[in-house]
């Protein structure tokens, strides 16, 4: 049954994109969680939605733009939103978290206006909100894979600097690292991954794929690199099983992927709890033997 599934081009496109996103989303998510910026992904996803809404409005209003791919404006808005968010963080130095709700509110405001101008919700917009198994075209696949590959390479090249900035920003600055420049690069990378993931997971759920696998990995990992590796494994499991389930059960893939991520998180928490009980039980037995 699985082999038959891959006879369709759109399914192959979707799975290729899903596998790539399953790597870069948890990879970046690991840095996001450590830097306590988990809500940043939500804010940028709302800005991406604004770009999609504007694109759909333009394609309906102006005939020459009817073939405009919403993915491109999604990338543009997400990148612009990430740069503006970083600017706001520097403006509100003592209240940096204010940048997140400001950008989220602006993104949602633009989204609502242009969705209403585009005559409300339709099938295309619904697929962007919650993901779609059949929405990934060949051109989309090439674009998303290229963007994801670029993000992955940049993360590898700048891993040391991003690691230091995530765990000890003051030491990183003293070491000569240009924190501001790397923060901007990081924000742009997050924006690109969010815009890339919307075809599979959906704009409203994309932040979950960046944080839930990391939250699960933290429960059992013994270091940051191990957290990244385990988070990617969990992300890939969620994407693959979620896409297969979505296709055969006729579900929105975003919901299926997120629910699987939640199940994995619950299982890791149960595993940690059981493991802790076993360790305490063994220590109790050892102490009993010693006292005897």
TrEMBL record:
Membrane topology summary: Multi-pass membrane protein
Example of a GO cellular component annotation carried by this entry: ATP-binding cassette (ABC) transporter complex
TM ranges: 15-34, 41-59, 65-86, 98-121, 141-159, 179-195, 228-249, 255-274
Transmembrane helix among keywords: yes
Principal subcellular localisation of the protein: membrane
Keywords: Membrane, Transmembrane, Transmembrane helix, Transport
Any single GO BP term: transmembrane transport
UniProt-listed SUPFAM superfamilies: ABC transporter involved in vitamin B12 uptake, BtuC
Location of the protein in the cell: Cell membrane; Membrane
Domain of life: Bacteria
Family: Belongs to the ABC-3 integral membrane protein family.
Protein known as: Zinc ABC transporter permease
